[in-house]
């Protein structure tokens, strides 16, 4: 009699596949090793509107690519927050290089983008140390902050303005520029908001800001050019409203050619911050989540400080003595940062909508890039 064939051992169960489009934490991804492996397999990451000198993003992108071997496609580096959101809407079905994976947006765009179902929730492993007005479910979260300043090419402008109202003086004719289109750029829109408070407005009354820019335009002082590093260096936009981190980065990069003076306006101390978020339609969902993990690691946070930004984990970093004295010198003045006026999300959303609606009618100047 033939022996009965040996029973086959049951096949080992295959590990469950992870849908990185829905992963809300590294733990859900199977741990950081699993997340890193999946991100490396994707091999690419699409970022959008990240100038290399904005908060030291150039070094951040280079370090991330070197660390993980992931190619970064940088889309529309000179765009604004509205361009980021529009890019998601335009590329919902497109998994190619024009579809952003991650966002760095002004705070008014966080809640609205969540409401439009454009964002995917995710909480990085350092979530509990992130300070600020973060969405409780992780749809958007604060990345860094600073204050609004005047960046002045002192080779062109010798008598430096100290206040917003000073800028109305005829001696600044054809010398004042915004750093973006206020209808699309968070930085430019918040400049209008700050001007409102400098001219008798309030966090709930932005009209004086629009009126200020109307008068600035009528006097011929306001230029139609977006003041990015090119026009500033050439002297085409001698006085620019900037977030502090951009002004100091330009001062460093120009190395005295031209000379840059940074003025903290005395009539309003205006603070601002930005949000990170992941697109709900990210073509590289694992890489998107790994990017956020990197930004909010100690290494990523210190890289932002090198670019003059105060990262949202600063309190945790300083409590553990992680920030060197050299890096501390690059942080915004602590008193200015702590006493700055910062509107809440609802106020910013309302102000942004009013500026977008009223800019053409009230101010009547189309702000465009020199390129």
Question: Briefly, what is this?
Answer:
By secondary structure, this protein is an alpha+beta fold. Helices cover 37% and strands 14% of the residues.
Structural class: alpha+beta
pLDDT under 50 segments (min length 5)? 9-15
Mean pLDDT: 94
CATH fold-level label of the largest domain: D-Maltodextrin-Binding Protein, domain 2
> How many domains in all?
2
Main sheet makeup: 8 strands, mixed
What name goes with the CATH superfamily of the largest domain?
Periplasmic binding protein-like II
Range of helix content: 25-40%
| Straight-line N-to-C gap | 90 Å
Organism: Leptolinea tardivitalis
GO molecular function, one term: thiamine pyrophosphate binding
Keywords: Signal
Pfam families: SBP_bac_6
Description:
Helix content is 37%, strand content 14%. It is of the alpha+beta class. It folds into two domains: 181 residues, 3-Layer(aba) Sandwich (D-Maltodextrin-Binding Protein, domain 2); 148 residues, D-Maltodextrin-Binding Protein, domain 2, CATH 3.40.190.10. The longest helix has 18 residues. It is globular and about 65 Å long. About 2% of the residues have low confidence. This is Iron ABC transporter substrate-binding protein. One of its GO terms (cellular component) is outer membrane-bounded periplasmic space. One of its GO terms (biological process) is thiamine transport. GO terms for molecular function: thiamine binding; thiamine pyrophosphate binding.
């Amino acid at each position: 009699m033939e022996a009965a064939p040996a029973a086959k051992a049951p096949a080992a169960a295959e590990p469950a596949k992870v849908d990185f489009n829905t992963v809300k934490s590294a733990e859900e991804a199977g741990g950081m090793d699993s997340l890193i492996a999946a991100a490396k397999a994707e091999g690419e990451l699409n970022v959008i509107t990240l100038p290399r000198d904005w908060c030291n993003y150039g070094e951040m992108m280079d370090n991330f690519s070197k660390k993980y071997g992931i190619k970064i496609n940088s889309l529309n580096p000179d765009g604004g927050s509205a361009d980021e959101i529009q890019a998601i809407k335009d590329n919902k079905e497109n998994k190619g290089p024009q579809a952003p994976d991650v966002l760095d947006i002004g705070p008014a765009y966080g809640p609205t983008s969540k409401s439009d179902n454009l964002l995917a929730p995710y909480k990085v492993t350092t979530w509990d140390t992130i300070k600020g007005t973060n969405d409780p479910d992780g749809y958007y979260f604060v990345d860094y902050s600073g204050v609004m300043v005047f960046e002045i090419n002192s080779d062109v402008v010798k008598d430096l303005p100290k206040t917003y109202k000073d800028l109305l003086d005829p001696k600044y004719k054809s010398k004042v520029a915004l750093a973006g289109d206020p209808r699309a750029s968070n930085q430019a829109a918040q400049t209008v908001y700050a001007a409102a408070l400098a001219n008798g407005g309030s966090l709930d009354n932005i009209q004086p800001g629009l009126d200020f820019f109307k008068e600035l335009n009528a006097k011929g002082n306001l230029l139609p050019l977006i003041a990015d590093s090119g026009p500033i260096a050439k002297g085409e936009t001698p006085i620019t409203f900037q977030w502090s981190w951009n002004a100091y980065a330009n001062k460093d990069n120009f190395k005295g050619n031209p000379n840059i003076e940074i003025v903290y306006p005395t009539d309003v101390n205006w603070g601002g911050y930005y949000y990170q978020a992941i697109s709900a339609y990210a073509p590289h969902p694992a890489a998107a989540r790994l990017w956020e993990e990197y930004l909010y690691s100690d290494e990523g946070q210190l890289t932002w400080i090198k670019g003059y930004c105060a990262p949202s984990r600063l309190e945790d970093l300083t409590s553990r003595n992680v920030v060197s004295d050299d890096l501390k010198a690059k942080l915004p003045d602590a008193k200015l940062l702590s006493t700055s006026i910062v509107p809440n999300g609802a106020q910013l959303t309302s102000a942004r909508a009013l500026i977008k609606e009223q800019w053409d009618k009230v101010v009547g100047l189309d702000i465009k890039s020199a390129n």
